[in-house]
Structure formats: C-alpha cells, structure tokens
Amino acid sequence: MSTAAFFQFMALIAVLAVTVFPLGRYIAKVYGSEPDGSAPGDRFFGPVERGVYRLMRVDPESEQTWKSYALSLIAFSLVSAVVLYGIMRLQAYLPFNPTHVGAVNPHLSFDTSVSFVTNTNWQSYGGENTMSHLTQIGGLLVQHFASAAVGLAVVVALIRGIARSRTTGLGNFWVDLVRGTLRILVPIAVVFAVILGSQGVIANFHGFRSVTTVEGATQLIPGGPVAGFLAIKQLGSNGGGFFNVNSAHPFENPTQFTNFVELYLTVVLAFALAVAFGVLVRDKRQGRMVLGIMAAFWIAGCLLANFAESSGNPRLTAVGADQSITADSGGGNMEGKEVRNGVSSSAIWGASVTLTSNGSVDSMHDSWTPLGSMIPFFGTLTGEVTPGGVGVGLMGMLVNILFAVFIAGLMIGRTPEYLGKKLQSQETKLIVLYLLAVPAVLLTFTAASMFVGSVLHTTIWNSGTHGFSEVLYAFSSAANNNGSAFAGITANTQWMNTTLGLAMLVGRFLLIIPVLAIAGSLVRKPTVPTTSGTLATHTPVFAGLVAAVIVIIAGLTYFPALALGPLFEHLSL
Description:
two-stranded antiparallel ribbon
C-alpha cells in the first residue's frame, strides 16, 4: 500500500470512530423517540412531518402489523417504479432536457426503474447521454432518498420485533419513511453536497458545452446538478452515477479530498446503524458485537484488495515489467484505474463499495486481477452484510445472527434464544427462505444466460472464464442490490434488462418480506428471562461464530461457480 493511501485509510478509520457512535445514537432517538414521545429536531422537523402526514392521510400514532407494514412498503415501491418508468418513457416531451435526449426504450426503462427503486442502481446506460436533467433529479435522485429510507424502515421494524414483546405492532411504515428521509438522509446529504460542491464537483443545469481545446480540437463538456446527486448517491448506498464512468469521472470525484469524503459517506450509515441497534434493544454490547464483525470484514477486504492489486499481474512480471510501488511509479495493476487515484486508493474504494451495497466505482472492476476481483465477489455474494447497505446490511446481519443462534442451539441441545426471544420452526423456515432466495435466482439466471445467443454473441467482450465471471458478477450484483459491474459486459439487451430486473426484485422483496414476517412473529412472543444456560450473544466467541456462518454459507453456495470463473482464471495466470 502506498504511503498516501495508508494515511488516507487510517484517517478514514479515525473519522468513522469519532462520528459513528453519536450518529448511531441520533438514529436510535429518531426511530425510538424519547420517553416523553419527543425526538431530536422536533421543533424544526415536527411541523414539516405533520404537514406530510396530513397530505398522505396518515395517522402517525397508529401501529401496523407486519402484513400491513409490508403491503404499505410494496405499494410505495410499486408506485415509485411506475412513476419513474413513466418519466423515462416521456422525458423527450418533458422540460429540463438541455441535451435533447429521446425517450428511454421500454426494456431499459423497466430495468432502470426497478434498479433505482430496489436501491440497486444498476446502470445499463451512460447517464449524461441517456437521461435528461429532469429524469436525473425528479426521478433517479428521488429514489436515491426513497429507496434508502425504505431500507432504514425495514431494519427498524425488525429491531422493534426483537425488542418488543406480546404485541403485534412494528411501527408505522409511512412514519418511518418520512422520519428517515427528513431527519437523517436529507440533512446529511445537504451538508455534504455543499462540501463536495466547494471542492469542484459540478453543480449547474447546463447541457453539453462545446469548447475548443489547446490543440484546437472541439470537445463537448457535460454539465448537471452533480454535487447534490452525488452526496445522497454515496450516503444512501445507491451508487448510480450521474456520468457513465461514475466516480472515476473528475466532475464527480475531482480530488483526493472528495475521494475521502465519498468513501466516508459510503460506509458511515451502515456502521452507525449497528450502534443504533444496540441502543434500541437496550444492550449496547450487542451493537458493539455487530459493529465489530462489520468492521473486521471491511478492513480485511480493503487490505486484501490492496494486496492483490498492488502485487500486479504475474505475467507482466515474467516478461520483465517492474510493477513495484516507488516514489516515481504507482506500481501494481494500473489497468482500468485513474492515475490520480492509484492502485491502493482504488482498491480501498472498490472493496468498500462492494462490501456495502453501494455499487459506485472509481476504477473498472473488470480490469482487476482475478484474485483482487474476489473481494467484490465476496462483498456481493455474502449478501452485502459486511457492513452492507443502508438498513438492509444490518437486516441481513441480524438474519445471519439468528441463524447462528439456531446452529448454536442445535450444537448444545437447547432451544435457541436471541435477546430473550425463542426461535422456533416458523422463524427458522423464514430464515432459510431468506438465505436461499437470492442464490436460486442468481445461479439460475447466470446458467441460463450462458446459453442465450444475445448474451453469448453480442454483450460479452471476453471469452472463456473471464466472460463467465462477467455474467456471474452481473447477476450477483443485481440480485444482491449492489449495482457495480464488470465493464466487459454490455447489459442493455432485452434478455439482460429483463432478467437483471427480475433478479433485483427478488433480491429486494423476497428478502424484505421474510424479514418483516420474522419481525411479526418475534414481536408477539414473550421475553424469557436470562439463565445460566442462555447463549451469550455479545462475546467475541459468538462474533466468530457469526462470521464463520456468513463465510461458510457463501462458500458452500457459490464455490462451484467461482471455481469456473475468477478462481480458475487466477490459477491460469
């Protein structure tokens, strides 16, 4: 790792250590409220929220069962997808279209609307050439906020299911949606939009401007309200870039300081939610245990990605190329990376955005070494719980914790319990459904795609194992709602747009619905007292068990597919 990247990484860890705990406590107060029913910021946010509730005709005091909560969430997501689809189909006739782009075709509109509503933000298009400013702001930017707020709402409902007893209410979806948006996402995004704009991230409403270069050539320079778009893109685990090359574009990520800020935004909410969990269940040790697992995976992923990419390509070493990091050379595998970022900084970014559910890129993952690309694969294939996306990362982690408790119960011959709630057959079946839904659709569509002519002959630019890796990564990214891609595959075909869209829907809603059902089952149960035989779920030993469960489940599920792709490719170098 270069010296500059090392200090940047240490500074990032230090800033996170300082800010994650107060932010987590603030999030817990937003959703948990104080004993008097108040929440931080009531004087400012309260009147705005009450106005929104009146417009929506929502009683903020009413509680919903898990079924009502789920139906509200699905209805909101369905309406959001339809509206976004309509904006893209009609954008040629709508205002704020300075580049005069035409309507987006039906299959790409379907794929993109599903992508942004599910917080995947997979892009089978170049933003500056395909979307109008109205579509970017009134459609995609809105979903950057909304999809992240939905993720926050779901994990809060699950936490309430664990923390409450002998009731049926999990809160109110509409209240959680509004509170998460107005009190958490909007304030942070506004502050960091100003910071990014002050550092050179563009913020205007221009279209393409024609300029004459020093050499006398003509070049088109894109414009747009990028700073505001970018802040929530990173904060909300969205990742869908305003420009085609995402955060590798100098208008999105012009300096090392903006690179640092964007990395911080990528991971801060995921870690803060672990702290909020400990506060909400009234056992801060549980939050620290979850935070420790997430941090360990994240740090290890960043270091391993840096090691693999800094080591370079052994075939180049064999022919005499010097890939060592020196004062005059960045070294390592520089293919597909920005010189201004270098190998180490790009590796930290790539690991961070795939271990979360972000999906933004500042280098091309398709050009990483096979060993290095295993880190993005690991991030997506583990369900992105390390630390995972906003809300859904902690949601997945809690499901894995429940599964680890179940396994521990089998080993010691005792009914598994977690925070005083017994796990019985109903919860276990739902956990298994959660764990199997994504692998089923991911592997099925990957296998089917290898036999479809439109995939084999027109969209994969690399043959053999690397081409298979590109398809496998596309579906792993879509089904796990990440959104990053191996750039060697062009997914804007009818087959890929349709199947990727279906994979995104499964990866979002066939996970959220079982989780809400688990919450609905747990919230009705009484809390049993702790005894000497109760499994301690806040210890390092239990944290190790949870980490092992995450790795083993992913390994058993995906090792055969990985052996045909990146593992075989690495061994063939």
